[in-house]
């Protein structure tokens, strides 16, 4: 997969979150989008995912040399973020079975094998609403990392995880990097230490003097 951003910009009302962003993301590489809280990392990830429309510029997607329309890119990506919710009325097994109806698991994993890899064997028949925040985050990550998708978007991926959970995240992302495009939005080193490239979103902020000219 290749994603090309050309003079991309996003604003809310009259405030530009970022502007003049030209960049290319390539499969087989992991990228970190860095910046302080509120700098626009999450906004850029939602624009790339197609969940949020950009305000100016262009974004294009290519998979195996074929152009993919922006409205179809959802079928090629997995996204996890703190603001995304799980279906809490499902049990763990039901949640995974529901997910795989829309996107199969990598390596032809079964539901039980994914549960085992997430270390959630004892919660197989437990309702998601009764999970701890750390268990919910591990479930979100497991569904994203192990879904069959060319593009993996991870926004603040270790939110609510303890040190054991962080180690689990690092191990399983490393095991599933090959042949994928991975983009991580973070300002915490252990979340993006495996990344090959870094993009600082603050480099594309509009300065106060520039705002006065708009």
Describe the protein's architecture and organization:
This protein is an alpha/beta fold and 214 residues long. It has a single domain (2-213), classed as Rossmann fold (3-Layer(aba) Sandwich), CATH 3.40.50.300. It has helices at residues 41-49, 92-100, 111-118, 133-145, 163-175, 189-192, 208-213, and strands spanning 2-12, 15-26, 30-34, 56-63, 66-68, 77-80, 151-155, 181-186, 197-200. The strands form two sheets. It has a five-stranded parallel β-sheet with strand order 6-7-8-3-9, sandwiched between helices. Strands 2-1-4-5 form a four-stranded antiparallel β-sheet, with helices on one face. A hairpin with a 2-residue loop joins strand 4 (56-63) and strand 5 (66-68). Helix 2 packs across helix 3 and helix 4 packs parallel to helix 5. The protein is globular, with a radius of gyration of 18 Å. The protein starts with a strand and ends with a helix. The model is unreliable at 209-214 (pLDDT under 50).
Topology record:
Elements lengths: L1 E11 L2 E12 L3 E5 L6 H9 L6 E8 L2 E3 L8 E4 L11 H9 L10 H8 L14 H13 L5 E5 L7 H13 L5 E6 L2 H4 L4 E4 L7 H6 L1
Parallel strand pairs: 3-8, 3-9, 6-7, 7-8
Antiparallel strand pairs: 1-2, 1-4, 4-5
Helix pairs in contact: 2-3, 4-5
């Amino acid at each position: 997969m290749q994603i090309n951003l050309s003079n991309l910009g996003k604003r809310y009302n009259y405030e530009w979150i970022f502007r003049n962003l030209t960049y290319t993301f390539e499969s087989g590489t992991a990228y970190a989008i860095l910046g302080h809280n509120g700098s626009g990392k999450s906004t850029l990830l939602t624009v790339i995912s197609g969940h949020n429309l950009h305000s100016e510029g262009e974004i294009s997607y290519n998979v195996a040399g074929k152009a993919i329309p922006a409205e179809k890119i959802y079928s090629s990506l997995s996204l996890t973020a703190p603001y995304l919710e799980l279906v809490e009325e499902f049990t763990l097994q039901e949640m995974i079975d529901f997910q795989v109806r829309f996107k199969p698991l990598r390596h032809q994993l079964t539901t039980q094998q994914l549960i085992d890899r997430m270390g959630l064997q004892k919660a197989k028949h437990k309702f998601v609403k009764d999970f701890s925040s750390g268990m919910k985050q591990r479930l979100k990550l497991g569904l994203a990392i192990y879904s069959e998708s060319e593009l993996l978007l991870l926004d603040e991926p270790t939110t609510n995880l303890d040190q054991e959970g962080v180690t689990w995240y690092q191990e399983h992302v490393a095991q599933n990097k090959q042949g994928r495009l991975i983009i991580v939005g973070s300002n915490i080193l252990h979340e993006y230490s495996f990344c090959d490239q870094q993009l600082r979103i603050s480099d594309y902020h509009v300065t106060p003097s520039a705002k006065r000219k708009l």
